[in-house]
Design goal:
By secondary structure, this protein is mainly alpha-helical. It has one domain. Helices cover 80% and strands 0% of the residues. The protein is globular, with a radius of gyration of 18 Å.
Length: 147
């Protein structure tokens, strides 16, 4: 496995924990989780827009986007749901418990997507060891929540 990819994944995960705290704080100032989530996305759009301009990356054509499967558009909806849910949950459950539960949910979803090769992904069987990994994640959630 490429070390750079592993480090990038770890940094992204770390960033999610920081994002949960930052967005929960924004919600206190914005008054509602939904406004904090909107601020999150506006800042994200501005950052991505700046990157695309600086990197001189050409936008896709309307025809390219029109060819995307219907379900590929759900990424934005799921992102909005995720950010809003985390903003609501982090202050109530704590960032560690919220992230642990989110990771457990991600693992469950990932095993299903891999097993059935859903959403254009390659099939990777749900082996007993993958199941054990998911169970250990749930055990981790319980430990994080209790202690």
């Amino acid at each position: 496995m490429d070390v750079a990819l592993v480090l990038l994944a770890l940094a992204a995960g770390f960033g999610l924990a920081v994002q949960a705290g930052a967005n929960a704080t924004m919600a206190r100032f914005a008054g509602r989780a939904e406004w904090a989530a909107l601020v999150n996305f506006v800042v994200g759009i501005a950052a991505l827009g700046a990157w695309l301009v600086l990197a001189r990356l050409r936008p896709p054509s309307a025809a390219q986007l029109a060819g995307a499967p219907w379900w590929s558009w759900s990424g934005g909806l799921l992102g909005a749901f995720y950010v809003t849910a985390i903003v609501l949950l982090a202050p109530r459950l704590g960032v560690a418990t919220t992230m642990a539960l989110a990771v457990a949910g991600q693992m469950g979803g990932a095993i299903v997507v891999d097993h059935f090769g859903l959403l254009g992904m390659a099939e990777r069987a749900a082996s007993p060891l993958r199941g054990l990994g998911a169970v250990l994640l749930v055990a981790g959630v319980v430990l994080i929540r209790r202690f």
